Every structure is written in C-alpha cells, then in structure tokens.
Amino acid sequence: MIEVKDLHKAFDGSPVLKGISTVFEKGKTNLIIGQSGSGKTVFMKCLLGLIIPDSGTICYEGQIYSQLTPEQQRDLRQEMGMVFQGSALFDSMTVEGNVMFPLEMFARQSRSEMQDRVEFVLRRVNLADAHKKYPAEISGGMQKRVAIARAIVMNPKYLFCDEPNSGLDPRTAILIDNLIQEITREYNITTVINTHDMNSVMEIGEKIVFLKDGIKEWEGTNRDIFRTDNEAVSNFVYSSELFKKVRQMYLEERD
Ligand SMILES: Nc1ncnc2c1ncn2[C@@H]1O[C@H](COP(=O)(O)OP(=O)(O)OP(=O)(O)O)[C@@H](O)[C@H]1O
User: Fold this and answer.
1) Which residue, 50, 64, 150, 255, is most buried by CB atoms nearer than 10 A?
2) Residue 107 lies in domain
3) Buried b (16+ CB within 10 A) or exposed e, 192-219
4) How far is CA 113 from the centre of its chain?
5) Which among 45, 96, 46, 44 has a CA at the least distance from the CA of 66?
6) Does ligand 1 come within 6 angstroms of the Cβ of 36?
7) One domain for residues 58 and 114
8) Which residue has a Cα nearest atom 17 of ligand 1?
C-alpha cells in the first residue's frame, strides 16, 4: 500500500502538484487519469522517487520515503517495477536478455537461479517460445509482455505502468490490461497505472484518481464513475459519444 499525504511540487515557482492525498491499495490496479498537463507523470515520478516533492509525504507500507537513509531508499526502489510507455526494450538484446537485465544489475543470485526466474516470468506472460527473439521480431503486444516480464522479474511490491496501452489495438490493449490485473492480484502488488485509455478505466479501474490542474478532483472505482455527478470527471471520461451512450444505458438499466 502507498499512502500519499498533501503532496506539493512546483517547478520554477509554478505549482504542478497542489496538495494531493490518496491511497493506492495492495493487490489492486490503481489508475491515475486526467488531461494532458494535469500532473500525472510528475505524480508518478514522485512515487518512483525520481522527483523529490517540495512537501508532503509518500509512505510505502508504513515507511515514509523522505525519512529513509539513501541505502534504504535504494532498497525500496529495487522493490519497484516499471513498465514504460512504448515498452523501452533494448533493441540489441534478445527477449531473454531484456528480462535478465535487472537481475544482472541488482540480484545476488547464481546464473542458473536467474535463468530459472527469467523462464518463469516469460512463461507467466505467455512468451515461453520467444526467448531468443529480438524486440524488432515480435509484435507490439508481445513487446509489452516482455516489458511486463522485465518489470516483475525482481518480484516487486510496487508496479508502475506509464500508458501501458499506448500504440496497441483495442483488443491487445485489453489483454495487456487483464494481464497486469492478474499479476497484480496473483502477487499482491500495489500497481499504479497512468492512463488516457477509457477502456482501461472501465475494465481495470479498481481505484481511480482523477487529477485536474494538479489537484485530486475525484477518486473512486469504475462503478462509481458511472454514477458520479462530478462534472469535470464526466466531461473527461464521457467526452466520446460512445461512452456517453454506454453510461446512459447503464443508468437506465439501474432505474
Ligand atoms: N522537469 C520539469 N520542469 C518544469 N516543468 C515540468 C517538469 N516536468 C513537468 N513539468 C510541467 O508540469 C506540468 C504537468 O506535467 P505532466 O507531464 O505531469 O503532465 P501529464 O498529466 O503527465 O501530461 P501527459 O498526459 O501529456 O503526459 C506540465 O505543465 C509540465 O510542463
């Protein structure tokens, strides 16, 4: 679980995060949504320890990040997995090499233990047959699976995903969402996903934090989002005619 309290961050005197408080729960897919420029990336970078907030606290399983020693902060960061936008694989390494990379950098394990772990996570994301392939030889959806395998290979407590669906067709996007949700539940990970994708909101939005101009404008679940009368959320989520109709049908069914 990650607890955020009154988080502030400004750049050159311009506030970007203006007092955000929320909780990201363990074993759940927590989504951060909001318009471009609302502060989602800065918020996620604060959660990753890549940006130091001006004030406020981020507490990981009871440990307040800013109160840890540099060694403890480093250890905590090793408990974080990250799926970057666009997968960010190393083109010159095979699938296996990409997944092995964090283990080679940080794990203190024998070669055969690392090999076993890589085998295991590649099987988990249904890529058992792609070990020796290079990123350019596999589809965008498979590349995302490799990125997920690499993010979980160190057995993280926290998983951060930045726009994990960008560039994927809707069907593959849902498969990737479902995979992230399954893994989150299976390994009881606190997963935080930055997304623009309304399908993800509906499909895996177990907890949604909606940012507007650096403020937490609304939070709730994908079920709550159908019922909310918060205008900013409705305008953002139901900006497409299709989603407006889906919402109308849902509300009519309930009446
Ligand atoms: N390192 C930085 N220095 C100065 N300003 C920054 C920095 N990083 C972000 N900002 C500013 O903070 C604001 C929020 O940016 P952020 O990238 O968090 O938005 P976002 O919600 O993630 O947008 P998008 O959905 O387009 O990725 C923007 O106005 C941006 O210019």
Assistant:
1) 150
2) 94-155
3) bbbbebbbbbbebbbbbbbbbebbbbbb
4) 27
5) 46
6) yes
7) no
8) 41
- Ligand 1 pocket, residue 46 CB under 6 Å: no
For ligand 1, is residue 195 a contact (CB within 6 Å)? no
Domain assignment present for 87: no
pLDDT per residue over 67-107, tens digit each? Answer: 999 999 999 999 999 998 876 888 999 999 999 998 888 87
Q: What is the ipTM metric for this complex? A: 0.96
Q: For ligand 1, say whether the CB of 11 is within 6 Å of any of its atoms.
A: yes
Owner of token pair 């005197």: 13
**Ligand 1 atom nearest to CA at 38:** 21
72 shares a domain with 162: yes
Per-residue pLDDT at 244 exceeds 80: no
Q: Does 139 share its domain with 166?
A: no
Residue identifier of the C-alpha nearest atom 3 of ligand 1: 11
Query: Is 59 part of any domain?
Result: yes
Question: What's the total number of domains in the chain?
Answer: 2
Is residue 228 included in any domain, yes or no? no
